[in-house]
Amino acid sequence: MRIYFSTIILLMFLTKGIGQEHYISHIDFNNTGQFAWQMEPSDDDFVLSIQTSCFDTLGSCGGLILVNENGNIKNDLLYQSFSGNSNSIIVFKDDIILTGEFNMGSSLAYSIVKTNKSLSHNSIQKTLTLDNSDYYNLVALSSRKLNEKIVFSGASTFKDINEQNSFLFELDSSLSVIKYKKFDFVDNGYSGAMDIYSTDDEIFVYFIYKEFSTQEDSIKIIRLDTAFNQTFEWSREVESNSIPRGCVTRDDNMIISVPEGIAGSKKNIYCIDTTGQTLWVWNWDVNEVVTTNILRIEEARNGDLFVMGEVAAPFLFNGDTRNTAFVMRLSSDGNLIWRRFLKIEDDYPLLVNYITDLVELDNGDLQLTGQSRRKVYDSQSPNDFRPDQDILWARIGGDGCINGDCSEVYLISNTNDFQTEKERVISIYPNPIVDGQLTIDVKGHSVKVALIYDLSGQLIMHQNLEYGNTSVSLEGNNSIFLIRIVDEEGRLVHSEKVIRI
Q1: With contact defined as beta carbons under 8 Å apart, do 157 and 108 qualify?
Q2: Which of 281, 302, 351, 486 could join 373 in a cystine, given CB atoms 3.0 to 4.6 angstroms apart?
Q3: Residue from 305, 281, 309 nearest 293 by CA
């Protein structure tokens, strides 16, 4: 009984004392091209809105998946009717609300799905159309919770003159429309309500619009009260073909990404007050990054800003420009705290990665999602590979580091999907260990070193590994160890905690 109780205490330290292990990985949902738009925590799990190919069709569909912190899929709800965008989810009371597009054959309609946090298939789905039948291609772009209501924004095309207008809807908990508002500040052109943010009594809508008679695009922020009456407006011309994303509000100030440069190649961060004055600007260094695509801005619990998306960064690829994912943290006054890049392992031109959303966890870690396109090799024919597009799934520290490694570039390992599960497994046994002796079995992996840390995080052993089995002797007074196995390039391949009783 005494040994059993000691083991339980050690297991408690094992799961909480050392902390959550960080990683960069991927989720392969159905062996087709896929990516995640947004995620929300659901108790100890995460709900992701995704786009993928499914139902034996050549087109795409969308929906939700429920995954645990390790990226293991627990449940899913996919809708063949969803076409293109199923990118906005909110937690509404005990439910998940997903907004997107409903494919009606010749046109699209707004589609709203409501389900519980476990995605237990007791969902309801409603399709919304406008009173005027001359509007078609209704595209839902963003949604937020406003008190006990749901608001979402979108765009619709008027068929006779090919004019696209923006709309804002308010729904009740049964997904019935309470009211909606058309934004008609474009007489002959198009507009899209790209993002929407809300407080208890205000709504902020972030637009892009274009008059057909001009060569420039424009961006606009409109603030509304709960009756949809406009209380503030700010606008700015930008380069043509610029699509802004990312807008948060703080103390009545608006923090947005502003497309600038040729075709909006740079997306700088602006803080604008309620009079339209610019309080501060954070600029990308043009010598470092050619093209920036900011996909989301989120506010940290302490008031910092998380900015994420993708960049075309030649300095990461020896002068050859490739797209890769990035995330950075800015202070509340617009100063860079840190910036990290998630780089693919092999510089294959067609493979790109980006981050679309993050969640700040209770312990300060950051859970990231988006897209990971990798180069997957055949273990029997090393020169044969296939491109594989999966959902990016990563966890890093609040300082942008991975288990204390604060390198500027992290490599996304190419998981060898052609190997069997038995071939891929790295085994460390026994666990718990009794006499201080354990075995590390690394068959099927090209690895080099096992790094062994004590409970405080201090490196206590640097063990070279042989192909197959390596015996390791753990001596001293330590009872909990973290073993990290890295390959010849220093990339983390496997991590495991062991205890000695």
Answers
A1: no
A2: 351
A3: 309
Instruction: Provide DSSP, 247-275.
Output: EEEETTEEEEEEEESGGG-EEEEEEE-TT
Of 309, 299, 359, the residue nearest 67 (C-alpha): 359
Indicate the SS3 state at residue 358.
strand
Q: Tens digits of per-residue pLDDT, 154-165?
A: 777 766 556 777
pTM: 0.75
Q: Is the dihedral of CA 61, 82, 356, 156 positive or negative?
A: positive
**Cα 133 to Cα 82, 129, 160, distances in angstroms:** 21, 8, 11
Least confident of 39-43, 231-235, 309-313, 465-469: 465-469
- What CA–CA distances, in Å, run from 484 to 1, 229, 399, 462, 473? 32, 57, 20, 10, 16
Nearest to 20 by CA among 372, 364, 399: 364
Q: Which amino acid is at 482?
A: L
User: Quick check: 441 and 468 in contact, CB under 8 A?
Assistant: yes
What is the Cα–Cα distance from 492 to 449, expressed in whole angstroms?
10
